[in-house]
Write a structure and sequence with these properties.
Chains B, D: InterPro entries: Cyt_c3_hydrogenase_gsu (IPR012165), Dihydroorotate_DH_ele_sf (IPR037117), Dihydroorotate_DH_Fe-S-bd (IPR019480), FAD-bd_FR_type (IPR017927), FNR_nucleotide-bd (IPR039261), PyrK_electron_transfer (IPR050353), Riboflavin_synthase-like_b-brl (IPR017938). The complex is a heterotetramer, with 2 copies of chain A (313 residues) and 2 copies of chain B (285 residues). Chain A is of the alpha/beta class. Chain A contains 10 helices and 16 strands. Classes of the chains: A alpha/beta (313), B alpha/beta (285). The structure holds flavin-adenine dinucleotide (2 copies), flavin mononucleotide (2 copies) and FE2/S2 (inorganic) cluster (2 copies).
């Protein structure tokens, strides 16, 4: 998967692309990642669907969307026409649904990659999400991988709500994932102390934004350390070029921007510009040289300044 | 794209208290230019290094040509974001995105319009009134709130409107009661052709019911919790019946905030109606 | 376990008690919870041990402490003398160590309860923390329960870094835990983009502060829903009385305050005062009436105002 | 408890730029009262609803009796917190906790003291100098920095000190080099009895080495990352050798920031020395 630049939208945070196109040319994105597309149309969860928390946002949208047919008819062609590279995020409640969905996407033109949203509840396992269990996750990934054209990469999107992210990542790679995306939103909740009820109609929701960035950096770091050859799309609280670089130094080769776009519609192109400046300042010719660089053993840094600081401690 | 929104940093020109509300006038030419009545903006609250991630949606009360174009916002303090906004001072800057949303549609031909406002919802009616009068419409105001100091714009309504009827729940100004108590009378007296309303959901439901009874169209501007305001987050949805009779969860920020009242399923706001497109267990069209 | 009020210090966030006593009388705390006491003295982790993140704090202190003997000699008696109720947090690397430690504490006077820090790495399981696995956690809890006097409650302190907090909670209760404490800090990381290294010397650390409150509320909610009879001490990002009430409405019967004390040394007594005011405002005579109240089915609220608001939606 | 710290909200009296630094004077009687040279305060940065949770530690440069007692802080902008502090204006309020830490111990009898400051570290030396002079001590200053505008307090040092020697790494002020290059000469010329030093760790290490060579005591004020400043979080530890010869990880905020230089294991800062009390795999005393 060759992308012209490493800044993508995060699934479910860029609408259909048309909304963002009011602010900037979506072809300038490394790729446009769709919201998670489901087989049938979905109305999602009742409102309120959002709650603000300190440096975070809880959401419970419930994968509202028009279903794969409408997506293929009205959304994907528009993105292709605009010259956007499209990564289609897919969601489902059973392995069979993921398979059917992938088959439907298999010969659609203009799909750069497929991202598998493993945070969907598994209706056959009491609604527990696939991502919590390596074997359930791997089964979904394998089913998608089998259905999608061999030259279209399959990305497994993981949740931080597990005891061992590396184990799940490894299972997904063994199941055929070409790349990993992390992190999806950890489950959180907020309670309105005046109404004395959960703020979200759905009760719990997914936590995003800078509050979760330390979790994202840690997950990316662990996965990159354990599986250095596997490309990782890092996400979770990226709002500036520095945040993007943090995930890249931890091991991501691309970053996705979600919640930041809600605050700044130009977030993606701005973050790309800031990231490029930071890389230039640090003398990197290629992004690849920065990927995972923070893993280098102490004392082997390429930067004089860094070493000096370290030796002065 | 003439109507497309922009992000800009505007300097605050003036800040005022208006009864229970705060009013800010901000220099924002790019937004003022594109403004049509019913538009809103989103404001970044909390400043640099803030823990507040989401913008706050505020209706544009007024635009003026001064300094290349200004927008006036009127708001009540609710939580941390509006509390912060209430402390903004002249010469501070504000980060705005706008104009956003689907504005009030205007009638092609002159007609008689009743404009109903609840609490700060009245704020969006005066620019609308201007536009309607420019088109030769007659306008009548009905403004209500819980109590006198929460009725916004009574004076201006009295100046603009053919008639102005005020209601407060505690009787501290105008009639004791709700706007819906007086609305039938106002519609009948004015022989109104259309109703426009902005205010709390419960009020919009009531106003819609009255308009439906009179068999006249009603345009309502709704409020739902918004995380983005630009149509990408899907948090602000309301169940709305389409032309085809199918209920869809539509985004208040881009498909609204103004909807035809009789299309909004007010009783089902905060739920997913079982017959909505894609409802769980419902028919999947 | 009867406490005079529901606001406690969080383990590892109140020093020895003496430091806080400069600001307020430690007997005014519901209880003083010690840092996790270990068998032997521990020097902890190298510095930097802290990094600030958005609305969060990463720490990697590594349970620095003087060991149980010095604790019993110099710290516990001072707390008793000051009239503080002391909950002793215990940490260890093996079940045997927890057992030995608990035996050593068994006949020490002035211990109100023992809290078992299950986020310690299990040296017999490749350093994975006990809390990530129900059976490992239960084994530790059972060993402590067996050693500690029957009338001293044992509290199991859980980590949110699991796929199923309820399963771990249930195992701990089955293993003999009288109460639960949650949450300990989820693992996080930050990278200094100038030095291009992890900010913490230890690499990863534990994330605390308001950033994690939505995770804490969700964990408390889930545990209370599944195990309504088990008392829960809620913690994670409590900085105000409203935050404390949020955890109480979710199901906590007491709250602990950690990171907030670093910013405001008077945080505990202030939060207690604010909480009491909020409870009075809402017409609660007893805290117990508020515990878990947000779980009541929709439409059954005791508050006129709330119902009105709901019906108007 | 005379020395015990307090939390207070102080009004900012003045703000100034001093070369590369910012200086704030804040009304804080409770802190000024209790101040002794070497004390620091912690400042809440970012205001209400900020995403910054931890206070920033700043040495108290000076206290004055005005307005019941003021403290002066001098700081360099490093990250978000100090950037915020740099924008604080007169009449704003600041939330302070202090005075904190173990201050510089003063000699019982009059003697000759060399005061060595690096970068903003010099700021803590003038109150110390006053106290020493009050006790009849002779003081000599050695101040250094990378470049001229980062040398803090040269003028005041010239007024107070018997001698004042300045160094800059780029030679833009005083001697080209480091304070440790000139320190042996100053100690020898003054026949100094004791050295006090405040500045970056590397400088403190060098100064300590020089003092040890001369066989005179040295008191250093160290800096380590602090999350609380009041001794409860254990993040600010430094390896220090005790009277009993055992190395312990001591908290810079309460057991320091001032330590006897020769007791601080500078080469091991940022590590846990293998022979420290409770070191992993080490002897467990
Ligand atoms: C289209 C539109 C126009 C509006 N115009 C006005 C106006 O002119 N004057 C005015 O006083 N208020 C207006 N509101 C409501 C205003 O947006 C909220 O009062 C405000 O966002 C509350 O922010 P807070 O920080 O004070 O409260 P908090 O409760 O702290 O807000 C937390 C989060 O919830 C969101 N939120 C909370 N309540 C609402 C709400 N009612 N609507 C949308 N988002 C909400 C906030 O944006 C924020 O993201 C409008 C809302 C919408 C949707
Ligand atoms: C006892 C003591 C006295 C000090 N006196 C002064 C002074 O008089 N003038 C001055 O300019 N600076 C002083 N410092 C350093 C000052 O505390 C840091 O520069 C400041 O905290 C950086 O905050 P920031 O928000 O700009 O940087 P950030 O990097 O954003 O800070 C992030 C976090 O790390 C902590 N931190 C970062 N660097 C340091 C550091 N060097 N020491 C302690 N904590 C740190 C901050 O407190 C904050 O919690 C002193 C430090 C200590 C320990
Ligand atoms: C409103 C909202 C909707 C989301 N929808 C999806 C989705 O459909 N599929 C998915 O895989 N992730 C979804 N996510 C998760 C994001 O893609 C991303 O993983 C997460 O928000 C962390 O990134 P951020 O902090 O930059 O937002 C959604 C997040 C938000 C906030
Ligand atoms: C500096 C620091 C040290 C801690 N030490 C311990 C500890 O020794 N044992 C323990 O169980 N938890 C420890 N914790 C976790 C806290 O007790 C608490 O669970 C967590 O910080 C969440 O609460 P807070 O957000 O209020 O800080 C520590 C937390 C911090 C920040
Ligand atoms: S507020 Fe985001 S879609 Fe409407
Ligand atoms: S800064 Fe917390 S113990 Fe020193």
């Amino acid at each position: 998967m060759e992308l012209p630049n490493p800044v993508l939208t995060a699934a479910g945070c860029g609408g259909t692309g048309r909304e963002l196109a009011q602010f900037f040319d979506v072809a300038r994105l490394g790729a446009f990642v769709t919201r998670s597309i489901t087989m049938a149309p979905r109305a999602g969860r009742p409102t309120p669907r959002m709650a603000e928390t300190p440096s975070g946002l809880l959401n419970a949208v419930g994968l509202q969307g028009p279903g794969v047919e409408a997506f293929l008819e009205r959304e994907l062609p528009w993105l292709a026409e605009r010259g956007a590279r499209t990564i289609v995020s897919v969601g489902g409640g059973t392995v069979a649904e993921f398979t059917a969905l992938s088959r439907r996407l298999a010969d659609a033109p203009g799909i750069t990659a497929v991202e598998v949203n493993l945070s969907c509840p598994n209706v056959e396992d009491r609604g527990r999400m696939f991502a919590r269990d390596g074997s359930a996750a791997a089964e979904v990934v394998a089913s998608v991988r089998a259905a999608i054209r061999y030259d279209v990469p399959v990305i497994a999107k993981l949740s931080p709500d597990v005891a061992d992210i590396v184990a799940v990542a490894r299972s997904c790679v063994d199941g055929g994932a070409d790349a990993l995306a992390m992190i999806n939103t950890p489950a959180g909740m907020s309670i309105d102390v005046d109404a004395m009820r959960p703020t979200l109609a759905a009760g719990a929701g997914g936590l995003s934004g800078p509050a979760v960035r330390p979790l994202a950096v840690r997950c990316v770091w662990q996965a990159h350390a354990a599986l250095p050859g596997v490309p990782i799309i890092g996400m979770g609280g990226v709002t500036t070029g520095r945040d993007a670089l943090e995930l890249i130094l931890a091991g991501a080769c691309a970053v996705a921007v979600g919640t930041a776009t809600f605050h700044d519609p130009y977030a993606c192109p701005r973050i790309l510009r800031e990231l490029e400046e930071l890389l230039t300042e640090r003398g990197f010719d290629r992004l690849a040289d920065a990927v995972g660089l923070a893993h280098r053993p102490a004392g082997t840094g390429p930067r004089g300044r860094t070493d000096l600081e370290e030796s002065s401690l | 794209m003439a109507g497309s929104p922009v992000q800009m940093t505007g300097t605050v020109l003036t800040t005022r208290r208006v009864d229970a509300y705060h009013a800010l006038t901000v220099v924002a030419p790019g937004i003022a230019d594109r403004f049509r009545p019913g538009h809103f903006v989103t404001v970044a609250a909390g400043g640099r290094d803030t823990s507040m991630l989401t913008r706050r949606a505020l209706t544009v009360h007024d635009v003026k040509p001064d300094y290349g174009g200004t927008v006036e916002l009127v708001f009540a303090v609710r939580g941390a974001g509006t509390a912060w906004l209430a402390e903004v001072k002249a010469r501070d800057t504000l980060d705005l995105v706008g104009p956003l949303g689907r504005p009030f549609p205007l009638p092609r031909d002159p007609c008689t319009c009743v404009l109903v406002g609840g609490e700060y919802g009245s704020a969006s009616l005066f620019a609308l009134g201007d536009a309607l009068q420019t088109r030769g419409c007659r306008i009548d105001f009905v403004l209500g709130a819980t109590t006198a100091e929460r009725v916004f714009g009574a004076l201006r309504a009295r100046r603009m409107g053919e008639t102005t009827t005020l209601t407060t729940e505690d009787g501290s100004l105008g009639m004791r009661g709700k706007v819906t108590d007086v609305l039938p009378g106002v519609i009948a007296d004015a022989r109104a052709d259309v109703v426009y309303a902005c205010g709390p959901m419960a009020m919009l439901r009531g106003v819609t019911a009255v308009a439906v009874e009179f068999g006249i169209p009603v345009q309502v501007a709704v409020e739902e919790h918004m995380a983005c305001g630009i149509g990408v987050c899907m948090t602000c949805v309301v169940p709305v019946i389409g032309e085809d009779g199918v209920t869809r969860m539509l985004r208040a920020c881009v498909e609204g905030p103004v909807f035809r009242g009789e299309r909004v399923r007010f009783d089902d706001v905060g739920t997913i109606p079982f017959d909505a497109l894609g409802a769980p267990g419902g028919r999947n069209v």
